[in-house]
Design goal:
Strand content: 25-35%
Shape: globular
Number of domains: 3
Helix content: 40-55%
Mean pLDDT: 77
Order of helices and strands: HHHHHHHEEEEHEEEEHHEEEEE
Oligomer: single chain
Structural class: alpha+beta
């Protein structure tokens, strides 16, 4: 029996190995199909969102009704945010899509800014309409490129799984796949847009701020700063990518990590060597953390990086990602111009994004005068209809690029939440914001 026992055992082992191998093949194939479907959905949703923003921008060009402006601007901002989320989930290098991402980000922020302004009873100026017209022209171009690419994808000339596989080893290098080529062409043609950045209810005043101050650093020094900011023990490879010349000059680097498939793109200011932003690629997953836990992760990250006394102000949630705006606070006063935005994964708590442009341009030593009005005097100037919930001192930026020292009163009226700003020196009503509770978080209008 021993003479044929070994061959039988080997034969059984071979059969079992074959069965295991087939099962693994089947599972891998099923996973590949699943990921292909996810990529396709993200791409089709991107095409739909950009198409929607084009249509709504065109309607905005011919509308003269304030209520219609508010509805259209709200939809434009929401669709641009949705497009950004879907674009970031595609297996394409950051360098191929960075201009498209920046365009969508600015479109969203600009629409939010104008929405706040129109909601406050003001009108869209001729200059602002010209900006919208330029944003519309870019939406038309981007939409046409995406529709053309959509046809190519549907015809079978491009497969998402193949693109993802190629991207594993050469995520930032030039690729011959059709999709990446198309996005590279979009970037090379250039997306022109107004040189304004609007981020939250108070950032419109930052457009004319000067370059940040500091000693000019070398590219090598910038690379060291980037490596340290991300964590030297986490970095697998860091490559110089680009030189930025937007609000201020920057060094840009592409970073791959040791134990994480999705890379980062980081910009360091040439003056002062400050981290301007960090952009991480990710795939939308299943949220395992609450929004509050995400805030705690973001706050701990800022504190670790040396940004003390930062408090969360506004928050938005997109799938498994939360974006939190933080403002600087000192002696009980909140300084809204000193703004930092952090994007955190609610799946694993990983920091996916960091933007400190506003903070770098606005943060400074301030010599504030004592308020001429007491808290009680300012409280009497708020409408008695408002059920007050909280009060504190705040510094807010103005449209002219200056700052205003105010009392900030939060309150409710007819089930809605409002914030009223009373000038601490003059007693004038400086601003009123309505806080809208949306499915993605709170918006200040």
């Amino acid at each position: 029996m021993t003479r044929w026992a070994l061959p039988v055992v080997l034969a059984l082992a071979l059969v079992m190995t074959g069965i295991w191998g087939y099962n693994q093949y089947t599972l891998n194939r099923q996973y590949g199909i699943h990921m292909d479907n996810i990529y396709q959905k993200s791409f089709y949703d991107l095409v739909a969102s950009v198409g929607s923003t084009e249509i709504k921008l065109s309607k905005l060009m011919v509308s003269s009704d304030r209520g219609q402006h508010i509805r259209l601007l709200t939809d434009i901002s929401r669709q641009a945010d949705y497009a950004q989320t879907n674009l970031s989930q595609l297996p394409i290098s950051h360098t191929a899509i960075q201009k498209a991402q920046k365009y969508l980000n600015q479109l969203s922020d600009y629409a939010k800014y104008l929405n706040n302004k129109v909601s406050d009873g003001k009108i869209i100026t001729t200059e602002e309409m010209d900006n919208l017209r330029e944003l519309y022209r870019n939406a038309v171009r981007l939409n046409a490129d995406l529709v053309r690419l959509d046809k190519e994808v549907q015809s079978g000339k491009a497969g998402w799984r193949e693109i993802a596989k190629k991207g594993k080893s050469t995520f930032y290098e030039a690729s011959n796949d059709l999709v990446t080529k198309q996005f590279v062409e979009i970037d090379q043609r250039g997306i022109e847009y107004p040189t304004l950045i609007y981020d939250g209810p108070f950032s419109e005043a930052l457009k004319d701020r000067a370059d940040i101050k500091g000693t000019v650093i070398s590219r090598k020094k910038a690379e060291e700063i980037a490596r340290e900011f991300i964590g030297s023990n986490l970095v697998k490879e860091i490559r110089f990518s680009s030189e930025g010349s937007g609000e201020f000059s920057t060094w840009g680097f592409d970073v791959t990590l040791k134990n994480y498939d999705h890379p980062y793109y980081i910009q360091i200011s040439r003056k002062g060597g400050k981290v301007v932003n960090l952009i991480g690629q990710y795939k939308d997953g299943t949220p395992r953390l609450s929004v509050e836990q995400g805030k705690e992760k973001a706050a701990a990250f800022l504190n670790e990086k040396g940004y003390a006394n930062m408090v969360p102000t506004y928050q938005q949630k997109y799938g498994s990602v939360s974006v939190i705006n933080f403002a600087y606070s000192e002696n009980g006063i909140i300084f809204y111009p000193d703004l930092i935005k952090v994007k955190v994964s609610l799946e694993d708590g990983r920091i996916l994004g960091f933007e400190a442009r506003n903070y770098l341009m606005a943060h400074k030593e301030r010599d504030l005068e004592e308020p001429k009005l007491s808290l009680e005097e300012a409280r009497k100037l708020v409408s008695s209809k408002l059920e007050l919930l909280s009060a504190r001192l705040a510094v807010i930026p103005t449209d002219g690029g200056n700052e205003r020292f105010c009392y900030e009163f939060k309150g409710k009226y007819m089930g809605n939440l409002y914030i009223v700003y009373i000038d601490a020196m003059t007693g004038q009503e400086a601003d009123i914001l309505q806080i809208i509770d949306t499915e993605n978080g709170f918006l200040a209008m």
